[in-house]
Specification:
The protein is globular and about 65 Å long. It starts with a helix and ends in a 10-residue tail after the last strand. By secondary structure, the chain is α+β, with helices and mostly antiparallel strands. 24% of the residues lie in helices and 21% in strands. The chain has 3 domains: 66 residues, no CATH class; 137 residues, 3-Layer(aba) Sandwich (Rossmann fold); 126 residues, no CATH class. It catalyses: ATP + H2O = ADP + phosphate + H(+). InterPro entries: DNA_helicase_pif1-like_DEAD, P-loop_NTPase, Pif1-like_2B_dom. This is ATP-dependent DNA helicase. GO terms for molecular function: 5'-3' DNA helicase activity; ATP binding; hydrolase activity.
């Protein structure tokens, strides 16, 4: 979800522009223009690094002065879930859709210390014999080695986890089991020129320190790849062609200075694209320096973070909850990515016999929706 300040900045900009045509437009929201917003307050709220619950809730658009001008229209049909032909299947879909909404609104489970303990139905659980990575991979990617060239197979499934650390562990595990030569690509890290020119930080911080930095939305210093692995784009390359942040591709060639990949999702599906290295400067981080990393703007995406999965529609989701979700909307986002109940499987921490997990819902965000 976008921070309310972005909407307020757009409002002020449009008022300023439109008032040059008619001075009265300065008093109208968005300069008198009709703006259509789409979103779901059950999903994750704006990311506030080290922010409190109150700060996160107050960052949402319904805490802005603009909300007084909004007319809310509620959608009632879950378009992701497949429409079944017979009555029994339709009833099952409706029950699953209600369960997803109850997860999102925090109306199911036992509340304790502002969080909620939710019992996961037995048919959704993955049982592990101690090797959790193997269990989640075998469930989500059955017969993976024989399906690496099957784009439909790769497009319709993913493993989701709450944190980047867990996601990287799963991706590295899968990569190590695949045939073929593994190629490592190393980034060049420095301080952004605009920052370095005023502070001289590039003489203070050694390359080893810059290389060790790992944050969300930025590829690591060492990027390990094999032909046939799915990857996710981390930057917008060509929005008109649908090559946007979050698009998934499959590696087809590994060059020294450029990669070739085939688009897995979106309007450009099936097209081959050349991926160059790019200078990447992360924003909205808690880093005390302005890092610039020259690297391919991609991540291996057999597994992805729950936050990154927003907007995805998948036939098969393996939800890895060795550690519970930690912020509003994550569990709801994860369980609502699938097209059917049969496509969702969940692996919980806590050992054999554990069937509950923590759900985090900031119910106060729904008060004026």
């Amino acid at each position: 979800m976008t921070h309310k300040y972005c909407f307020e900045a757009l409002d002020k900009t449009l008022r300023d522009i439109c008032s040059s045509v008619n001075p009265k437009n300065e008093e109208l929201p968005f300069g008198g223009k009709i703006v259509v917003l789409g979103g779901d307050f059950r999903q994750t709220l704006p990311v506030i690094p080290k922010g409190t619950r109150e700060e996160i809730v107050m960052s949402a658009i319904n805490s802005s002065y603009l909300w007084d001008y909004v007319q809310v229209k509620h959608l009632t049909i879950n378009m992701r879930l497949m429409h079944q032909s017979n009555m029994l299947d339709r009833e099952e879909v409706e029950r699953f859709a209600r369960w997803i909404l109850q997860i999102g609104e925090g109306t199911i489970g036992k509340e304790s210390d502002r969080d909620i303990e939710v019992e996961i139905p037995p048919d959704l659980l993955i049982h592990s014999n101690g090797d959790n990575y193997k269990a989640i991979v075998d469930s989500t990617y059955p017969d993976l080695h024989n399906n690496l060239s099957n784009f439909d197979y790769l497009e319709e499934r993913a493993i989701l986890a709450p944190t980047l650390e867990i996601v990287e562990g799963i991706n590295n595990y899968i990569l190590s089991t695949l045939p073929g030569e593994e190629v490592k690509y190393f980034s060049y890290d420095s301080i952004c020129p605009t920052a370095a020119s005023s502070s001289g930080d590039d003489d203070i911080y050694p390359q080893e320190y810059l290389n060790s930095i790992s944050i969300s939305g930025l590829p690591n210093h060492v990027l390990s790849l094999k032909i046939g692995v799915p990857i996710m784009l981390l930057r917008n390359i060509d929005q008109s062609a649908g090559l946007c942040n979050g698009t998934r591709w499959v590696i087809t060639k590994l060059g020294k200075r450029i990669l070739e990949a085939k688009v897995l999702t979106g309007p450009s599906r099936g097209n081959k694209i050349l991926i160059p290295r790019m200078n990447l400067c992360p924003t909205d981080t808690t880093l005390h320096i302005k890092l610039q990393r020259k690297q391919f703007p991609i991540l291996v995406c057999f597994a992805m973070t729950i936050n990154k999965s927003q907007g995805q529609t998948l036939a098969h989701v393996g939800l890895y909850l060795e550690k519970s979700v930690f912020t509003h909307g994550q569990l709801y986002v994860a369980v609502s990515r699938v097209k059917s109940r049969n496509g969702l499987k969940i692996l919980l921490g806590g050992g054999e016999g554990c069937n509950t997990t923590t759900n985090v819902v900031y119910k106060e965000v729904f008060q004026n929706v």
